[in-house]
Amino acid sequence: MAKRMELAIQGSIAVATLNGPEKGNPFDWQGIKELEDILVRVERDEAIGGLILTAAGDKYFSVGADISLMKGIAGKEYAEFLFAGLRLCETLQRFKKPTIAAINGWAVGAGGEVAMACDLRIASEKARIGVPELKIGLIPGWGGVFRLTRLVGPAKAMELVLTAQNVPAAEAERIGLVNKVVAPGSLMAAALEMMRKILENAPVAIALAKSIIMSESEVPARFGETYEALSSILTFLSRDGKEGMNAFFEKRPPKWEGT
To answer: Which residues lie closer than 8 Å to 17 by C-beta, 6 or more apart?
Structure first.
């Protein structure tokens, strides 16, 4: 059986590629499982600093859940598949290492939800992003409505969800749905460049900073601010914190240990 996901390692960067361009790189049970396995492998491998998620072809990042799975299944099977996708997106969102979605084309439905679960998004000028499930009488179910609201605010999210609109790349950048838009041929170079800039920093600090940002909408401000302060203390006491300070004063690049 052909793989739904391909994994390549470029130095300290893992690149996971959705591999089904002839069908729009849809997610089925196999694709969910393979991406979950990749996340486990990348998180456990200390030599890998971050993950870029992209897709084969130049038309689709992912059209979402494999619609052929929906025909003829009962509510129980639909719920099982839905919660599997939801768990995948939650795992991706809470991943310790930095993640970038390099969106080469249409990222809609569950495809858009997976992209929104990444820390950062770089899009090709050809990309379109959205959660158009209302067009077929459904609600997005992999956490996309909540993530879209956090990214663009409730008013714009209300418009995009209720109109089932897919947003062109330039508009997605304007409203904060993607971080950067580049020419199609420059997509992976831009994603790799951004990841390399991130990985110039200390791994422990990266993980804690991600956690602080993600908790902003989940905890009261005073608890979040205390968590941030405690995280700062942890980084100050860490080996990497000491190395970073020493490297600064010695005017040399730091050598991170991840501890």
So the answer is: 5, 6, 7, 8, 54, 55, 56
